[in-house]
Each structure stands twice: as structure tokens, then as C-alpha cells.
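Example 319.
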Amino acid sequence: MNLSLVIPVYNEQENLPFLFEAVYKTMNTLQKSWEVILVDDGSRDESLSVLSEYAQKDPGHIRVVSFRRNFGQTAAIAAGLDYSQGEIIVLLDADMQNDPADIPMMLAKLDEGYDLVSGWRKDRKDNAVTRNFPSMLANRLISRVTGVHLHDYGCTLKAYRRDVLEGFRLYGEMHRFIPVYANSVGANITEVAVRHHPRQFGKTKYGLERTVKVILDLFTVKFLVSYSSKPIYLFGGTGMALIFIGLADLLYLFIRRFWNVPASTSPLLPIGVMFAIMGFQSVLMGLIAEQLVRTYHESQHKPTYTIRTKINLDKGIDD
Ligand code: UDP
Ligand code: MG
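Predicted structure in complex with magnesium ion:
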């Protein structure tokens, strides 16, 4: 299997026929074996029956997973990835806002040697106030914090080589951070402008509240990508800084005593003590985190590195 399309579906009954039409139109032009994994995320409309109809007609290409209830877009994508077999994965939305006609162009980029090609909805057709504007701010923040510079993390349409994300689990709103994770394991990433269409049928499932979740996920991702194998550097570093400030503050109070300035009435006393205690706590938290990291890596035999190729080393270290 060369290519797997992974598509999350939640209440998209009217869009699905158009989606299938566009997918077939594009896939029939490609010289690749392909499959589509459609994940019905607990739809309450007729999406599932539409999906099963298409799956029955074309069992060689169309595969369907259906959730018992709505678990969210990220979970749906995660399930799609779990059941997909292609060496190349393409993610896209079911609502025809992404255009399957962009897929060949993205695959051509992969052939140029990239491991991941991320779509950029340059001319995005969503609500300006509740979606586009907050999304622009969030994108800038993510770009700044993660050091992975893309314009549009939120675009579902992405193509990548399966092996760069082997072992990566998706939580929360994390599918948008796939490029950040891929970058952290050394993948070559690029971005291409893709078409974006207004929604014809059904409603968007998201509003302003999504931005908050995205920002919270950004904390997690930054932590996991930058510190997950060395948390003591973050906790310990913060802790040492706090201890230093606390002790400097207390030292200042102590020295002032020589000029008979009372320390006990100064607000600097509780502040200094508080900083020192918080710092000490933070260092201890870092030590616990270090312990957790070891459990994580050693219990699951997860190495702390990722390998691109091996030469004359066919046997794995576990064999
Ligand atoms: N989706 C899903 N589960 C959800 C919400 C959305 O599978 O809980 C799917 C939805 O059917 C669509 C894609 O995720 O295929 C993107 O959703 P939507 O179009 O509502 O997001 P927007 O384009 O407005 O960001
Ligand atoms: Mg949409």
C-alpha cells in the first residue's frame, strides 16, 4: 500500500458524496495503490450509512471505522492512522473545505525529499472574527514558541511519510502539532499553499473556545518536544533561579540589619522565603519528572533518539 487518506467525519452526510467524487477523481489519476480510511466520529446524522454504502461498493479502497460516540477530530485522526497501511499518509477534512485535488501537488513535494508537507489555507474561507483572527495569533505564537515556522498549523490537509511519526500518539487538539513533533525527530518539513472552500453543507464544530485549547496544548507540546527527556533542566533551572532570587532577597535583608533596618516588618521577608521554598519545590519536582521519564522510556523500550537509516545493522537492538 502506497497511500492512505485519513478522513475524520462528524455529521457530514451531505458533504460525503462530493468528497467521494473528488477523492476518486484525484486518486484515479495517481499511479499508486491507495486506500481511504474514513473515521465516523459518532455522527448523529446519516453519515455512517452513507460511508458503509461506499465501502460496500468499493471494498478494495474504502475502509470505515465508526466510533460509539463523538471523541473529537484528533481521536478520529488517531484511529485512522492506527488502521491505515500506507507508507504515505494524507490527512484531510470530510467537509470539502480542503480540496483533494491538492493531493498530487503535495505528493510531488514529498518526492522532492520532504518528509512532511503541511497545507497552508492562504485564502481561508472561515469566519473572520471567531476563527481566522484568533487562528492567526495562535499560529504566530506556535511558530515563535516551537521554532517550527509554518503559517497554518490548523490546516488538516497534510501529507507525510509514515515512518517519521511512528510511535507518536495524538491527544487533545494535537493533530495540528504533527509538524512540530516531526521536526523534533528530524523530519524535513515544508509548507504549500492549498485551496480552501467555504463550507457548503452542515456546520463547523468549532468556535472561539478552540483557541484556548490550542494554547494549552502548546504548553504540552513545547514541554514534550524540548524537555521530555530532560525535565530537570526546566524544573531545576526554574527552581535554581527562584532560589537565587529568594536568597539574594534574604541576604539583602540580612545586610540591612547592620544599619538597624528591621527585617521582620519588611514584605521582602515573606517574599524571599516564598521564592526559596518554591524554588526548592521546583527542583524536587524536576527530580520526580526525571524518574517518570526513565519509567516512560524503559518500560516501553522507547529510545531517546530517532534513527534515519542504519548501515550494516539489520538486527534491532531488541533481537
Ligand atoms: N470532526 C470530527 N469530530 C469532531 C469535530 C469535527 O471528526 O468532533 C471532523 C469534521 O467532520 C470535519 C473535520 O473534522 O471533517 C473538521 O471539522 P470542521 O469542518 O467543523 O472544522 P473547521 O473546518 O471549521 O475548522
Ligand atoms: Mg471545515
